[in-house]
Here is the input.
Amino acid sequence: MEAVFKPLWPGGPVYVQSPHFLLGTDSILLADFVRPQSRRHGLDLGCGGGILMLLLKTRLPELCMEGLEILPEAADIARENLRKNFPGEIPCVRTGDLRNCRTYYSAGSFDFLVSNPPYFAAGSGRSAPEAGRALARSEAACTLEDFCRACAYLLPTGGSVSLVYRAERLAELCTAFCAFHLEPKRLRFILNQADSAPKLFLLEARKDAAPGLRTEPNLICRNADGSDSAEIHRIYHSQEKD
Here is the structure.
């Protein structure tokens, strides 16, 4: 069956979903959170269908974005998405396991990393019935320590990693990052409504940086009446209703 590409917003990039990695709000919010600044060479660890690479390159076309994905089918879809939106470029998406990143890349190869990693430790959380989606949800094939070790290897001093993660694992993630000399620097909680407890957060860490964490204003997804917030409309390139 021929892939059906749909625009992410009117006049925006087009995208076809991978069945293993359904497009979710968390990845959209993460792409908006990332601040490459002078960093120009990035890698998406576990890129799925390539949504983070696509959104970042749409925002900053000069970025050189690569992807690493363990599932061949998802990696193929990521390549298709990039080819469709950037026809003059050859997609740099490698099929492989991030635990073997030393085989694929030299130390300190990337200025910045992005990732929407598995949220749940192995044996916890609701398991997905399909094997590919199970890999995306749980750490059965890649632990938090594996992820942090790969980040520390792939980044030079001063390089950054940005990710979205479950709020109840904030302390665990920060402890793991610090063990690999990745210092948490920017933190933003995601709330459904202003009076909700956060379920997710966005975090940027930098390699070999001095301590000092800046907490940014909460990202509130919905107004009190249940409608999308002004910030969600901005991120999704949609119009607020009168």
